[in-house]
Amino acid sequence: xxxxxxxxxxxxxxxxxxxxxxxxxxxxxxxxxxxxxxxxxxxxxxxxxxxxxxxxxxxxxxxxxxxxxxxxxxxxxxxxxxxxxxxxxxxxxxxxxxxxxxxxxxxxxxxxxxxxxxxxxxxxxxxxxxxxxxxxxxxxxxxxxxxxxxxxxxxxxxxxxxxxxxxxxxxxxxxxxxxxxxxxxxxxxxxxxxxxxxxxxxxxxxxxxxxxxxxxxxxxxxxxxxxxxxxxxxxxxxxxxxxxxxxxxxxxxxxxxxxxxxxxxxxxxxxxxxxxxxxxxxxxxxxxxxxxxxxxxxxxxxxxxxxxxxxxxxxxxxxxxxxxxxxxxxxxxxxxxxxxxxxxxxxxxxxxxxxxxxxxxxxxxxxxxxxxxxxxxxxxxxxxxxxxxxxxxxxxxxxxxxxxxxxxxxxxxxxxxxxxxxxxxxxxxxxxxxxxxxxxxxxxxxxxxxxxxxxxxxxxxxxxxxxxxxxxxxxxxxxxxxxxxxxxxxxxxxxxxxxxxxxxxxxxxxxxxxxxxxxxxxxxxxxxxxxxxxxxxxxxxxxxxxxxxxxxxxxxxxxxxxxxxxxxxxxxxxxxxxxxxxxxxxxxxxxxxxxxxxxxxxxxxxxxxxxxxxxxxxxxxxxxxxxxxxxxxxxxxxxxxxxxxxxxxxxxxxxxxxxxxxxxxxxxxxxxxxx
Length: 675
Known about the structure:
Layout: H1 3-26, H2 33-54, E1 57-66, E2 68-75, H3 78-82, H4 86-98, H5 100-105, E3 106-113, E4 117-119, H6 132-142, E5 148-154, E6 172-178, E7 187-195, E8 198-200, E9 204-214, E10 219-227, E11 230-239, E12 245-253, E13 258-268, E14 279-287, E15 291-296, H7 302-311, E16 317-322, E17 335-339, H8 346-355, E18 358-363, H9 369-375, E19 379-394, E20 414-423, E21 427-435, E22 438-450, E23 453-459, H10 464-474, H11 478-492, E24 500-503, E25 507-509, E26 515-520, E27 533-539, E28 545-549, E29 551-552, E30 557-560, E31 567-575, E32 581-589, H12 602-611, H13 622-631, E33 638-647, H14 652-671
Parallel strand pairs: 2-3, 2-5, 5-6, 8-14, 15-16, 15-17, 17-18, 18-23, 25-32
Antiparallel strand pairs: 1-33, 3-4, 7-9, 9-12, 10-11, 10-13, 13-14, 19-20, 19-21, 21-22, 22-23, 24-26, 26-30, 27-28, 27-31, 29-30, 31-32
Helix pairs in contact: 1-2, 2-14, 10-11
C-alpha cells in the first residue's frame, strides 16, 4: 500500500472514533458499559465502511511447489494387439501409476494416442491409425516452455503423420518403452504404392512400388499386378540381409474408361508370420480427355501459332489450323476455335447448328461484326471503325473454374474495334476491358452456356503478347498455358445436366477417412450456401442402407462415412430444393494399416531417444527407467512465490462483518429499549 493509503486508513479510524463518541457518549449524561459497547460497535462499523470506501489493495505472498511434468503416453492402436503386447502395456501403466516415489517428484499425467491424442480414459487397443508425430505436436502445446521428460510406451510403428524422429521439441527428453517381440522374423511387405489418381485413356500411366524385406536369408519373390483377376504385370525380385528394400517402377495400360481397381501381390515360397501385408489394392480413374480442336481462320496472325503451341502443351489435345472453306465436316473435331470470323465462316456456323460443338470465338480488328451478330445470340457488338487498346481486369468472383489472377492488369493490352459489347444472354465474365486505367463494363473474356452448348469469347487480338510477357516475367510459359488449358478443358467438358458436382475416390482402405464432397450451384452457377444435401449409402451385398446429411464448409458440402465395413457401396446424393441428384459407387478394401507390422520399430525409437538425449527401454527394464527418472537431477521441483494483490472491496468477509456489526448494534438497542 502507498503512504497516502496508510494515512487515509489511520485518519478514518480517528474520524470513526469521533463519530461514535459524538453519537453515543457526548450527548449521554449517564454513561454505562452498555453505552461504551454500543459506541464501540458503531465505531467499528464506521471504520469498516471507511476502509471499504478507501479500498486499499492488500498484497499476499503465496508459496507453492511446482513439480516437473511427466507425460506418460501409451499407444492405444490396433497394432499393439496385433503384436500381442496389450498385457505388457497395461502392466506398465499400472506400475507407473502406483509408483509413489515418481509421483512425489513429478506431476505424472497419463495420455493415450492412436489417430488422435487425449487424456487416458481406457486402453482398448482398437485405434485404426497411430500418429506419434501428433503426440509431439500436442505435447508442444501443453508444455510449451517447460523442460520435461516423456515416457512413450509404443511399438514405434506409425501409420499417420510425419517422421516422429525429428518431431519432438528440444525441451522434451523421450524415454521410449518398446512394446512387442523384437525377434527377427521373415516378412515380405508392400510398404507403399505411388500412383496418380487419374490416367488418360489409351495411354500408359506410371506406378511406383516400395517393397520391404525383413529376414537374414536370401530369397526370391514374385511381384504381380492383377486387374479383374487378369495378370497385367509380373517381375521376379531377389532379397537378402543386405538388400532389404527395393523400389520398382513400371507402366500400365489405361485401356478402359472409368474406375479401374488393381491388386498388387508380393509372394515367395518362404513361410511368413504375417501374410496380410503381402497384397495391396489401388485404384485409378481412367478418363478420355483427348480433344481434336479445329482452329479456323482466314488470316495469318501470331495469335494462331501462340494458341496452337499453348493448347498442345497438353499432349491429349491436337490443334489443326484450317481454312473455313476447306472444312467439309465437323465430325472429326471436339471443339471449334474460330479466329476473327467473317462471312467465309458461314458454312462453319451452319454445320455447327447440327453438330452443336462447343466454340471459342476470338474477335479483333479483322472481324466482321455484322456477320458475327447474326450468327450468335450471346453478345451484341456495337463497334466503330476506330481501333483501341484494351487492358484486362480480373473478376475475383469468377467461379466457372479455378483461376487465379496472374497479373492480368499488367499484361499488354489487346487490340480491338472501339465500341460497346452488350451481353444478350446470361454470361459469366472472367476479364473485363479497361482503357487508360478505367475499367469498363465491356467483357474481355466471357463465357456463355445455353442448353448443352458452351461458348467462350475473347474480345481482342494480340494474345501472343500475353504468352511472351508471362515468360519474360516468370521465365516460363506455365501461367499462360495453364489459362488456355483451363479454358479448353471447360469447353471440352460436356455441359453438366445439373448443378451438382461430387468429388470422391472410387477406392478406400479400411481405416481411412471416407470423405465425399459436393458442390451445388444455382442457375447462375453460384455456390448455393442454403442448399440441403443428403446422401443415401447402400451396401451392394447386404442391401443395408443409411442416410446422412452433408455439412457445409467454406466452399462445399461434406460427409464423413468413417466406420463402414469392407465391401462395395453405392450412394446417391440429393438436393432438397431441386431434383438434382448424383449417383456413384466406391469400395472399402479390407486393408488394415495397423496389421502390417510383425515387429516393433525399435530402430526409429532408438534414433528418437538418442536425438532427444533420452534412452530406450523394454518392459522388463521398467525399474531401471523409474530409478533413472527419480535420480535425474535435471528435473527438480521448484518453489515459486507469487504475490496476490486484491482490493479490499472484493473481500466478501468484510461485507459480512459490516452487516454483522450493524445487526448486533440494532439487536442490543432493541433489547434494551434504546430504539
